[in-house]
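User: Show me an example of a complex going from sequences to structure tokens.

Assistant: Sure. Here are the input components:
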Amino acid sequence: MAIKYSILGLLHYKDMHGYRIKEHVERNFGHMWSINYGQIYPNLKKLCEDGLISMREMPQNGEKGPPRKLYSITEKGREEFVRWLHDSPERTMIMRDPFLMRFVFFGFGDREKALALIDEQIRDYEKQLKRRDENKKRWTELGLYVRLVADLGISFNEMYIDWLKRAREEIARPNVKEPETS
Amino acid sequence: MAIKYSILGLLHYKDMHGYRIKEHVERNFGHMWSINYGQIYPNLKKLCEDGLISMREMPQNGEKGPPRKLYSITEKGREEFVRWLHDSPERTMIMRDPFLMRFVFFGFGDREKALALIDEQIRDYEKQLKRRDENKKRWTELGLYVRLVADLGISFNEMYIDWLKRAREEIARPNVKEPETS
DNA sequence: CGACCAATATATAGAAAGTATATATAACCC
DNA sequence: GGGTTATATATACTTTCTATATATTGGTCG
């Protein structure tokens, strides 16, 4: 139920409608977080039913598109949010990576193909690191906590690229052993 | 569809039934990966229907529990697996962390409570790092690729603890600014 | 002016991943 | 022979994620 509370948290900053929430997340947290309509609209509906946010339909004044539904956090919502904020996080970090999932099995495939996939990863993450470095100033403007998470993103990127390069080197050495069967 | 292929990969090592797969993953990959029966049994069923693995029921010879269904990878399964292995991973890494999700919003709550949660995280990850260091020898026996992923786990742990400590220090300093409203 | 396109906005279906729990069998032990 | 424990399979449910359907309006170009 983390997404529910994240949306509640965003409405702390200002009143928003669903479309604006997605835009906001992409603009401000795009490199570390993504959200989509399939998560936003059902959650807004649920939050509204629970009385944690309130909705008012906006009059059409010259803007494009269908009438907007503007959501605001309620007093009850603020209380519930702070309660959640100070709670110990339920479970630990989940890291799911289609590349690493393959990586453990590379022993069953072709080594050259594996090296090529690693090179592809190195290129991708170097691009990402460059983007993150460029965006650091913008994140700093969003306050201490957002900037710290951005720093974490950069540290992670650097660490991961280092690891990829070390791994590549080891794999490329001629005397690789096959994984044992158990 | 990563889990489907991971199970296929595990059956590369040896024939297994569902219960054994869970045991194997917990024993050998417990600190970096977890799987559960709700993922295992439906996937085994699906893989069987697609002809990527085959099933045979085992006779009861002195063991506990109901009759086992032993699964083996088929030739078709091996081909499909290698095809997947050499494919470029579809999407990039997903990192979801209930703690970090809260962290970005810490500006809206109590600073002392935030510091306490950070301390809790530091303790947890230091414990995890200790366990990972202790287990490194065992992972090394499972072959180059598994060991490299274990190394990544250790590097990640160290980096994350460093970041938590740096962040704690900055937050504890008296002159913290509130996040800006936008 | 009206057909068409692009942008805005909401909504829902459905797949994939993860959690929880139900059910069954047999060994082991008192 | 009844309760406990370990083994094993199965399914229901929740959460997260992806994809797509639908509606409205402004702009534009012939």
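The lines above are the inputs; the final block is the predicted structure for all four components together. DSSP finds seven helices and three strands in chain A.
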